[in-house]
Amino acid sequence: MLKVFIVDDEKYIRDELKYFLGKRDHIQIVGETGDGQEVMELVEALEPNLVFLDIQLQNMNGLLLARKILDLKNPPYVILATAYNEYAIQGFEINVADYMVKPFSEDRLKLAIDRIDKQKNNGHKETIETQEMDFHKLCVSQNNRFILIDIGEILYIESTNQGISVYARDEVYGCNYSLKELEERFKKKRFIRTHKSYIVNIDFIDEIIPWFNYTFKVKIKGKPDIEIPVSRNYLKKFKRIVGM
């Protein structure tokens, strides 16, 4: 059984999706909402296998929601939906399962569901774009432009309620990956997760400062006012990697 949750602030879109999906015997619609503020609570409560998610919700950024959903411990598949093709590259960068442009056709929806059924039956997830290469650049955004920067130029990465910020030597960029995805992407590079909200480039750690409850903070080269926490959840691995 494929449990589906639908997020779109247009009721007729939700009704159209329910009509098409209702033709598939193995699909169960477990919930729907047009309110972006309640999405995470409902996803965690209903535990769907698949979320249809509108990018352009009135009260929430759908791309930010997609990142939060995919950062869950056992995330569902996510299919992004929008009326505009221009958001496709951002969908690729988030690594969602599929990307559909409105208005939906029944054939296109069938293709998306068949693809997810195949992945689910095979016991693994694939994404709509590049399976991992040993890639030394990261796609980031600034002023509505997408830029490829060298990973070695990144000082640290921070997750906030507004999204992911990538701090390079002289610039700050946005990024559509979650920290969990970046941690996996950089696991063979010289980066380390120090906190639920931070990943740090080891080459730019200038000083490690003892903090309370046997934790630490790290200072970044060239950024004397920046102190990044090392929480207890990541302390053991951090100390092993830096040789403390």
TrEMBL record:
May play the central regulatory role in sporulation. It may be an element of the effector pathway responsible for the activation of sporulation genes in response to nutritional stress. Spo0A may act in concert with spo0H (a sigma factor) to control the expression of some genes that are critical to the sporulation process. InterPro entries: CheY-like_superfamily, LytR-like, LytTR_DNA-bd_dom, Sig_transdc_resp-reg_receiver. Keywords: Phosphoprotein. Residues 3-117 form the Response regulatory domain. It comes from Marinisporobacter balticus. Residues 138-244 form the HTH LytTR-type domain. GO terms for molecular function: DNA binding; phosphorelay response regulator activity. This is Stage 0 sporulation protein A homolog.
